[in-house]
């Protein structure tokens, strides 16, 4: 049950209400690797609890999923017909105020960490703050430590200046795992041309989001509009700097979107990208509802003018190369989809 | 063994290496109340551990100290010849990312909380950051909650814009418990005329620090220079807006100043107000080394032109009035040194 018939398929951000059903959909959809969010506002101990839950799934469903730690694990997933699960955080809450936890969390498998969610963190400013003072004193220290151990800096929810500074300060390429260009849909969470250009020039990666609040036309966004946007972004950033990061929040109850937005920081309700009238999870576009729908995006990319190699780059090869460069203490590189440890 | 012979004497900031010796010095010095720092970077659980340590002292030395919770407790201290100990934090770490902990910590006795120490916090910017983006989204929520339960906002270590915004946003007067005016000694931790004027006009309080890094001439600062500075500050802020907050760090080993400065946020050494050559606790000025020396400051204030009432205001009556206004959910007031709960 290996996956020889397709090029790598990697989704660099999901936060579903995980279940065996969803893991089986990953297999049906030939998804080789998924970066899963395992913490929004959880502190260290709570994050460990979430890891315990994943350990149970890995124990119970070894024929479907296993924990990914290196780019080689994506190859292993392809060879054994399974999906490699990579852990990440959308806020630095799991490391609390303790730089020593960066290495501990990397040892536990964390491969991505956002320096901020929507609000100011100890490290950087979130996109919902009125002012952005850039990377903090602690943030500079933590970026260096993440660079050292091989944890990717993710600025998907961070504010503009903080993002540009993170790109500049980090000695390794960073990622925006789930967002779209503001030139296509000027949502607060989508990214300016300046950010995307700096990200591409520094060797970083953008993962295109299918979360309706990030889409032009929201839930009604067409596949063609989405894929034409990807083609324009390839022109802006380079065809090697883009991938998929769907932000799939499948089967989640609306209480979860409230946790994502409100955490424990306010006694009021904050609607984030939503509104009082539209507070819950928005409906997904017709062409992407779960892990079985990646073929639709491939079809859309071909229609938008991508050749087979270009489609493969967007659907997984670019993330695979980036994973190879990013997760170890030494530089790694990927050639023709095969991961080789560098000297 | 009551203290009928002197007006209230309150020190609104100490962080000593507490011991029976120091508590006995408080008694010898007729100190009626001390705001003690019980957390720098401690999280909630660690702060509770520090409270447990204080509970043992209260249990073991009830003839010397007891926990203060209201302004009435200062009067009780005077009537019973003891020192009332009020808890405070120099960083919001004890509340972690959880606004619900504000009330819990107030119930446990916390009466002061700095919105930031030297670095950016989740609530405000510290004075050592390169840029100050003001009070954060969470900070606005937490200020409202502190106002509600009666926990004083302390901006001693915060940056300028954050401090001005805290004064403006808070519906109750705030405090700078331990700092001096920059016009006298332009250290990063000392405060501008703008901040002091806004603080005074809003009914807030400044506590004058004796920590040598805050003193003109450092450890060699003269008592006269210190007291003349107090007189000038009274002119700037009003004679009712000033008190003492010595920042006494008596008997602490240098490892403690490293914890204060470095916490867990960096793997490097940060020297804070010190330097590589002068990394430890500086030597105290000759006229103030411990709790038995408050009479020296009183003498200095008389020499600087304060009358008896003015001296009493600076040495304790102003803080006593402020405590009466600040620690409850309802407004309180102090008249002629007697606390009365307001309607």
The CATH class assignment of chain A is: Alpha Beta
Mean pLDDT of chain A: 94
- Greatest chain-chain contact: A-B, 31 and 31 residues
Oligomer: homodimer
Specify the structural class of chain A: alpha/beta
Portion of residues in beta strands of chain A equals 5-15%
Shape designation of chain A = globular
CATH-level-4 superfamily name of chain A: Metal-dependent hydrolases
Helix content of chain A: 25-40%
State Rg of chain A: 18 Å
- Any guess at the CATH architecture of chain A? Alpha-Beta Barrel
Count of helical regions of chain A: 11
SSE order of chain A in H/E notation? EHEHEHEHEHEHEHEHEHHHEE
Question: Remind me, CATH topology of chain A?
Answer: TIM Barrel
DSSP E strands of chain A, number: 11
Count of all domains of chain A: 1
Largest sheet: number of strands, sense, barrel closure of chain A: 6 strands, parallel
- What is the first-to-last residue Cα distance of chain A? 33 Å
The residue ranges of chain A in which pLDDT falls below 50 over 5 or more consecutive positions are 332-343
Tell me what you see in this structure.
The structure is a homodimer of 343-residue chains. With 343 residues, chain A is of the alpha/beta class. The first copy, chain A, has one domain: TIM Barrel, CATH 3.20.20.140. In chain A, 38% of the residues lie in helices and 14% in strands. The first copy, chain A, has 11 helices and 11 strands. In chain A, strands 1, 2, 3, 4, 5 and 6 form a 6-stranded parallel sheet that branches. In chain A, helix 6 runs parallel beside helix 7 (193-201), helix 8 (223-237) packs across helix 10 (294-303) and helix 10 crosses helix 11 (308-326). Chain A is globular and about 45 Å long. Mean pLDDT of chain A is 94; it is low at 332-343. Chain A binds chain B through residues 41, 43, 93, 96-100, 119-122, 125, 128-134, 136-138, 141, 145, 263-268, and chain B through 41, 43, 93, 96-100, 119-122, 125, 128-134, 136-138, 141, 145, 263-268.
């Amino acid at each position: 049950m290996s996956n020889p018939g397709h090029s790598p398929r990697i989704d660099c951000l999901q936060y579903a209400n995980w279940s065996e059903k969803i893991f089986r959909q990953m297999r049906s959809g030939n998804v080789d690797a998924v970066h899963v969010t395992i913490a929004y506002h959880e502190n260290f101990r709570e994050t460990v609890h979430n890891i315990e839950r994943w350990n149970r799934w890995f124990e119970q469903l070894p024929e479907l999923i296993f924990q990914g730690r290196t780019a080689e694990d994506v190859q292993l997933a392809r060879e054994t017909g399974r999906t490699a699960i990579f852990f990440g955080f959308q806020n630095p809450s799991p490391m609390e105020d303790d730089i020593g936890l960066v290495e501990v969390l990397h040892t536990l498998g964390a491969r991505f960490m956002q320096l901020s969610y929507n609000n100011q963190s100890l490290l950087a400013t979130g996109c919902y703050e009125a002012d952005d003072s850039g990377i903090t004193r602690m943030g500079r220290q933590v970026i260096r430590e993440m660079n050292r151990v091989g944890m990717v800096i993710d600025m998907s929810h961070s504010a503009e200046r903080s993002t540009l500074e993170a790109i500049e300060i980090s000695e390794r390429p960073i990622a925006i795992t789930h967002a779209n260009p503001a030139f296509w849909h000027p949502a607060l969470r989508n990214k300016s041309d300046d950010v995307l250009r700096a990200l591409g020039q520094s060797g970083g990666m953008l993962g295109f989001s299918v979360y309706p609040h990030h889409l032009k036309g929201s839930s009604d966004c067409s596949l063609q509009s989405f894929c034409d946007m990807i083609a324009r972004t390839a022109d802006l950033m380079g065809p090697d700097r883009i991938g998929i990061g769907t932000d799939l929040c499948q089967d989640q109850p609306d209480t979860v979107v409230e946790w994502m937005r409100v955490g424990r920081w306010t006694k009021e309700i904050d609607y984030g990208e939503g509104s009082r009238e539209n507070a819950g999870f928005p409906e997904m576009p017709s062409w992407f509802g779960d892990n079985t729908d990646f073929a639709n995006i491939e079809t859309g990319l071909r229609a938008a003018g991508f050749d087979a190699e270009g489609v493969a780059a967007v659907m997984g090869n670019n993330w695979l190369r980036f994973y190879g460069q990013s997760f170890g203490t030494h530089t790694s590189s990927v050639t023709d989809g095969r991961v080789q440890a560098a000297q």
